[in-house]
Design brief:
Layout lengths: L9 H24 L14 H13 L7 E3 L5 E3 L12 H8 L14 E8 L5 E8 L4 H13 L6 E3 L2 E3 L1 E8 L8
Length: 181
Amino acid sequence: MLQKMKPPKRSFLLIAAFALTIGFMSTVLLADTKAPEKNTSAAPHDSTAVVIDMDVVRRNTPPKAGEITLTNVGGIAFKTVDKMPAFNGDMQGWLRDNMQYPDSVRAEKAKDGCLIQFIVSEKGEILRPQITRSSGDAGLDNEAMRVLSKMPNWVPGAQKGNPVPVVCNLAIYFKPNMGGC
């Protein structure tokens, strides 16, 4: 007669699965927490080699996600670069001389600001301005866009020594006592 085979005990299978899980988890945890080994072969006073190596890595590394944005004409604009664009001169003075508090909101004595995002091109031109945070008043927003469109060229941003288009944000605040300046 044929004899029935007895199935393995369930406790044995649970113990084997638990042991394998513990082994796997300890390997993963040890790999994540292991400190990188320090290179002791180089002299401690010779840090130039490390700086040069990092410079080579930085130059040859493609931009990370979120560092660039696509423009609507198929180009790219950087969000962070080695040298960020800068206004050529005194921006606050220029804004003070060219910005006018709109008469349409003077009676309301509205005071608020808006945030404008734009691209500074390789030539320093301001391209594609758009309001990313409104002041809540169309008159203030329109004046901010008008002033931004009148702005002179900026010093362009540079990546690895080459001028590149860069995405910038500018907050413009309005106060009722600005007068008609």
